[in-house]
C-alpha cells in the first residue's frame, strides 16, 4: 500500500520518487535495523565463544566444582524451601568427608571382584537413584549435624549396606 504526497499540482512520474513511506513500512524498517543489530551482537558473542570456549569451560567447571559453591547452593536450596539450615561450612564439609565410600554399580567383574569405590561426595547429585544425597533424619527439624544421613539408591550408607565401602588406606 503506497501513498503519494499530496501536492497542489499534477505531476507525471513513473519511478515513484514522490512516494511517502507508510507507518507500517517505517515500523518494518526499524525492526529490520534491530534484527540486524541483534544478529551482529549474537555473531560477535559466538565468535568470542569459539575463540575462548576452552578457557571459559575450565573456569566455569572450577567454579561449579568448588566445595564452597556447592555448600552455598545446598544452603540456598534449604533456605528457599524454608527448611532451616544450621550447618556451618566446616560441619557440612566434615559430614561429606567422613561419609563412607560408595561402590560404583556395575563395576564388579571377574577382573575386579571388589568393584570400584569412590567417595560419596564424588557421586553427589539430584537424582536419588544414581547419586548420593544428604537427607534429614527428621523432616520436621532443620538441617544440622545431628539431623542428616548420606543415602545412595534408597539405602543409607552404613556398614552392612549394599553399596557401603571402607575408605582405602594408604
Please provide a brief summary of the model.
This protein is an alpha+beta fold and 170 residues long. It contains three helices and eight strands; from the N terminus they run E-E-H-H-H-E-E-E-E-E-E.
Please, could you describe this protein's structure?
The chain has 170 residues and is α+β, with helices and mostly antiparallel strands. The protein has two domains: 44 residues; 82 residues, no CATH class. The protein contains three helices and eight strands, in the order E-E-H-H-H-E-E-E-E-E-E. A three-stranded antiparallel beta sheet has the order 4-3-8, with no helix packed on it. Strands 5-6-7 form a three-stranded antiparallel beta sheet, with no helix packed on it. Strand 6 and strand 7 form a beta hairpin. The longest helix has 43 residues. The chain is elongated, with a radius of gyration of 32 Å. It starts with a strand and ends in a 5-residue tail after the last strand. The model has no long low-confidence stretch (mean pLDDT 85).
